[in-house]
Structures are given as structure tokens and as C-alpha cells.
Task: inverse folding
């Protein structure tokens, strides 16, 4: 069994997608400002794993388990994009000055 670690014992039971979701929830529970939400990016580890899965996908050699992981990561990314869009929509509009 492959394990992924971010430094805690319980991480050995988490998939990279679950770890990514956990990272996002930890960030959101810190009560970030709208600007911090808009600037947020998943960890380098999460981004690297997503890139690896996409490369395997485009090469046509993605296993069934990896496809499920990629699907999970894409759903998480979609939720994050929707959150950022909602935050952007709630920001006060800048007024153009002449």
C-alpha cells in the first residue's frame, strides 16, 4: 500500500485527493479574508500529483484507481473555482472614475 504523508500519523490512510480536501478545509476554517481565498492555491504536492495524473491520462496509461483519484481532484478543483467565483461576485464593485 502506498501512503502519502504531510506529517501526521493519520495521513497514511488518506489519498492525495482526501489530503487536498483536508488542506482546503483547514485553510477555510482559519476564516480567511476574501483576498486570501482568491489567492489560495493547493499545495505544491497536490498540484504535482494532479500534473502527474494528467500526464498519465493524456498518455493513455492511467490505471482505474488513478482515474478515480483524478476525478476526485477535478471535483475538488471545481468546488474551489466555484468558491472563488462566489467570493469575487460578493466583493464590492470598483467604480470607474473619469
Result:
Amino acid at each position: 500500500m502506498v501512503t502519502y504523508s504531510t506529517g501526521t500519523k493519520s495521513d497514511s490512510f488518506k489519498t492525495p485527493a482526501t489530503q487536498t480536501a483536508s488542506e482546503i478545509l483547514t485553510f477555510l476554517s482559519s476564516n480567511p479574508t476574501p483576498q486570501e481565498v482568491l489567492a489560495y492555491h493547493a499545495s505544491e504536492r497536490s498540484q504535482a500529483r494532479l500534473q502527474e495524473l494528467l500526464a498519465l491520462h493524456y498518455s493513455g496509461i492511467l490505471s482505474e484507481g488513478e482515474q478515480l483519484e483524478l476525478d476526485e481532484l477535478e471535483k475538488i478543483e471545481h468546488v474551489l473555482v466555484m468558491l472563488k467565483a462566489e467570493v469575487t461576485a460578493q466583493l464590492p464593485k470598483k467604480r470607474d472614475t473619469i
About this structure: The helical segments are 16-29, 34-39, 44-59, 64-90.
